[in-house]
Amino acid sequence: MGQGVGRPDRSKSIRLEEYQTMTAEEQEEEEEEEECRADAVEKHSQQLKAICGLADLKNEAVGLYNIGLSCCLNSLLQVFFMNRHFTAILRRIKVPFGAADQKWSVPYQMLLLLEEMQRGRHEAVHPVGLARCLSKHEVRLFILYDASELFLILWNLIKSQIINLDLAESLAGLYTIQLQESLVCQKCSLETKNSSNMLMLPLPVFAYDSLPIRTLEDALRCFFAPEHLTGDSTCHCERCGKRTPCLQGMKVTCLPHILTLHLKRFCSKNSGRTQKISHYLSFPRNLDFNEILTAEQYQPGALEEGSGLYDLFAVVAHSGSANFGHYCAYIWSLTEHKWYCFNDSSVCQVSWDDVRCTFGNAGLRWSETAYLLVYLKKELAAAV
C-alpha cells in the first residue's frame, strides 16, 4: 500500500516590490494594522496554548459522542489526543487569524476539541466543530470508513496545514518509517535501490503458503521477508533490456518514535465482496525489532542498542462484519499507567486481559479484533 506523507504548504508572502508604489502614510497605516493583527494573533495563540497546557495536566479520560457513524473517527482522535508527544506539537501550532481560516484548519479544530475535552466537566463531548471542518476536506459523516485509510487522511491533513516547517518536520519524525527497497535481477545480478517513507506497515495475516499467521512477530517477519518475483510479477531489467525474474527485498533505514501497524484483516473475494478475517493473531505488550529482523533487513546504525524496543500504546479494534461494524480504541494512559477503552461516549478502565480479547476468534461472527496497533519507542513511553 502506498502511503503519502503530506508536505506543509509554504506560507504566502507579499513581495517587497508590491509595496513600492505606496505613500509613506499608507505604509505607516499598513504597518500599524499589521502590528495590531500580529499582536491579536499572538495573544490568542498564547491564551490557547496556556489553556491547553493546563488542561493536558488532567488525567481524566473523556469520551466523544457518535454524531453520524463517527466511531472510526472518534477512536483515531482518542489515539492522537492520549499521546502527549503528539499534543505537544499540536499546542505549538500557529493559530489562524481569520474566522474562515480557523474553520478550515484541522489542527486548530483539534486543539479546540482537546481544550473542550480536557477543561470541561462532561464525561463526553460532541466533536461537531472538527466534523464540520473535516467535511470541508471531503471527510463526510454517515460513511463507514476504514480506520487505516482515515488515519492517513487525518495525518496528512494535519501535517499539510501546519505552517511552521520545523513543527511539520517534527511530526513527520515522530511517525515516518524510512525503508529501502531493492530489486536484484536473477539473470545478471543488477541491483536497484529505492528509498521510501511510510506512515504505517500493512502486515499480512496469511503467510505465502496461505496458512494463517498467529503472531505479530511472524507478520512482521513475513512483511520483511525477501520475495521472488516471477511470472506476471517479473520486473524490467535495464541491463538485460527485458523483464526478468527478480528478488525483492526491504531494509529498515530508520524506525519512528511512534510505530503504526495495520493488520490487513479485510480482503476482497473474486465476487467483489469484502470479507473480514477474524482468526487469532496475538501481539505483545513489548516489541523488540532486534529479535525480528535479520542483519540483512536493516542498515547499519538503524537498530542501535535499545532503539528497536517498543511498548504497546494503543489498539484500534473492529467488531462486526466488513460491511457493518464498529470501532473502539484501547489506549494506555502514559500518565496514569492504566488501560482505557474508548467506545465513543463511553470510557472505562480495562485490564490487559480485556485488550488481549482483540487477538481474534474466527468462531465468533461479531468478534472484536485488533486492526491498528500503535507502539511507542520505550524511551518515549517513559518520557512523560
CATH architecture of the largest domain: Alpha-Beta Complex
Mean pLDDT over the full residue set? 83
How many domains is the backbone divided into?
2
CATH topology of the largest domain: Cathepsin B, Chain A
Helix proportion: 25-40%
Rg value: 24 Å
Number of DSSP-assigned strands: 18
Indicate the overall shape: globular
Strand content: 25-35%
Oligomeric organization of the protein chains: single chain
CATH superfamily of the largest domain: Cysteine proteinases
Low-confidence spans? 1-27, 47-59
Backbone structural class: alpha+beta
Biggest sheet overview: 8 strands, mixed
Helices, by number, come to 11
Top-tier CATH class of the largest domain: Alpha Beta
Main attributes of the structure:
four-stranded antiparallel sheet; Ubl carboxyl-terminal hydrolase 18 isoform X1; cysteine-type deubiquitinase activity; Peptidase_C19; 18 strands; 384 residues; eight-stranded mixed sheet; USP_CS; Cathepsin B, Chain A; alpha+beta; Peptidase_C19_UCH; single chain
